[in-house]
Structure formats: C-alpha cells, structure tokens
Amino acid sequence: MTTYTANVTREGDDWLGDIPELEGASTYAATLPRLVEYLHEVAILAADLPDDADVVIDLRFDDALPDLAAAAAVGQARRQHAREADELAERTSGVVHRLVGDGYSVRDVAAIVGITPGRVSQITQATATTTRTPRKSARAGKVPKRAAPRAIRVQAGRVTPSAASRAQDKV
C-alpha cells in the first residue's frame, strides 16, 4: 500500500487536489467523491504504479474549510460503526452455527447470544441457501442499488480515503 497526501481546496464550485510528493499530480472535480477518485488515478499514473495498486490518499483540507474535518470525522465514525456491526454479524453467525451444530436449541442459542429465536433460524437457514434473490423495492418494483463505494478515514485532523474506499459504504 502506498500513501500520498493531497492538499484539497475549493475554488468556486470545483474541488482542487494536488499531491506535492508527485510532480504534476493535480486534478479537479465538481464533487469531492469524484476528486478522490481522480486523485487515485493521478497518483497511480504519476508514480507509474500498476493499475490495481493499493493507493491511499490522505486529504488535507485548506484551513478555510474547517467544518469539513468535523463532518468527515462524523462520517468516519459512522463507517467504523458499520464495519464493527459487520464484524459482529460475522462473529454472531459463527457462534450461532457452532452452537446449533453442537445440538443446542434455537431458543437456548438465542438467549445466550442475545438475539431472537427467529433470527437464529434465519442465520442457520441462510447458509443452507446458496443463492439468495435480492428483495425488490415495493415502490419501484426494482432491485435496490447500493451507493457507490466510498470510505473516508480521519486521523489527527486530516481526512483520509483508505483502502476501504473501495469497500461498500453501508451508511
């Protein structure tokens, strides 16, 4: 993983990003998520890295944009919470499968793990079904689409799109 720092400013309606460590590595975009995407591309090109290189861009905002760091910290906390919830769900699934497999009743497992018996049944049956059909939206009659994957990490007052920026943002 290679990490670069990009200085981010706002000029009119556009976001400007410059990576001082790489000569000529600057770009602009109408939205911040697009700027992050472009900065990844610029870093890969300027550093002559493989197209699939794992690049992290630390965003350092102009002092004129102090609210962005605070907002990014809230977003980071939400994404961290979602990651922890995913990890807890995985751990829960493993424990439920082991306990049910060891012969404990669904009700006993539910009481021990702190979930409902119905959820224990859902977890144990989800693995038995190898293919799942996505639920359709009641309003549009279409399968709901997930938002474009993006994650931002905040460290010591700076915003950092991480390798997780390619993971799904579940917030």
UniProtKB/TrEMBL annotation:
Residues 126-171 are annotated as: Disordered. SUPFAM superfamilies: Sigma3 and sigma4 domains of RNA polymerase sigma factors. It comes from the Bacteria. Residues 133-148 have a biased composition (Basic residues). This is Uncharacterized protein.
